[in-house]
Amino acid sequence: MIDTYIAILSGFVYLAVILDLFARRVVGYALSRNIDTTLCLEALRMALARRRPPAGIIHHSDRGVQYASRDYVEELLANGFRISMARKGNPYDNAAAESFIKTLKAEEVYLWEYRTMDDVQNRLPSFIEDVYNRKRLHSSLGYRPPVEFEEMFNNAKSCPVTLTAAV
Fold first, then answer.
1. For the domain that residue 98 is a member of, what is the CATH number?
2. Is the dihedral of CA 149, 155, 159, 165 positive or negative?
3. For residues 115 and 164, what is the distance between their CA atoms, to the nearest angstrom?
4. Domain count, the chain
C-alpha cells in the first residue's frame, strides 16, 4: 500500500493505492481530501473485492499511522493477511510501490493541471486502469503490461497472488 498527494487549486487530494507485487498491477485505489484510515480502507476493500485473496497473503506498507490503525489492522487480520511494514525511514523496502508513484506523477499528474477534485477523479482512474494496468510495459514483466502478464500466467495455471501496500 502506498499513498501520495496530488495538488489542486484549493490544496491537495490524496491517493491510496494497493499493488499486486507479482504483476505490478494496481488492484485497489481510492481518492480523498483527507489522508486517513478511511481512505486506505477504501483502497483495501476495492482490492479485496477484485482479488478475493487466500489467507496468508502478505500486505506490505510503510509505518504510516493509517496502516497501523486498529481499524486497518483488524480488516487485514479478518481477511487472513500477514502484515509487513517497512523499516523506519527506509523507502527501499517498498520500492515497487514507490516506483508506481514516480510513474504516476511523471506520466500523468505532472502533465495535467488539475484544478479540482473532480478533475482528479475524472482522469486518474483512466490512467490507472487503461494506461498503467493495460498498456504500460514493465521490464520486470518481460516488457508486458500487468494485465497481459497476469493473463499469461493465469492461463498457464501458475500465477501466485500477492498484494503489497506502501505509504
1. 3.30.420.10
2. positive
3. 30
4. 1
Cα 80 vs. chain centroid, distance in angstroms? 19
Per-residue burial over 41-80, b = 16 or more CB atoms within 10 Å of its CB, e = otherwise: bbbbebbbeebebeeebebbbbebebbebeebeebbeebe
Q: What's the longest Cα–Cα distance across the chain?
A: 49
Closest to 117 (Cα-Cα) out of 34, 47, 38, 46: 34
Residue ranges making up the domain that contains 142: 2-165
Cell numbers for 31: 481518492
CA distance 125 to 104: 11
Residues 115-160 pLDDT 10s: 999 999 999 999 999 999 999 999 999 999 999 999 998 888 654 4
Report which of 87, 104, 112 is spatially closest to residue 8, judged by C-alpha positions: 112
Q: What is the pTM of this model?
A: 0.89
- Going by their DSSP bridges, the two strands 11-20 and 164-165 should be labelled as antiparallel
Phi/psi of residue 164, each to 5°? Answer: -130, 155
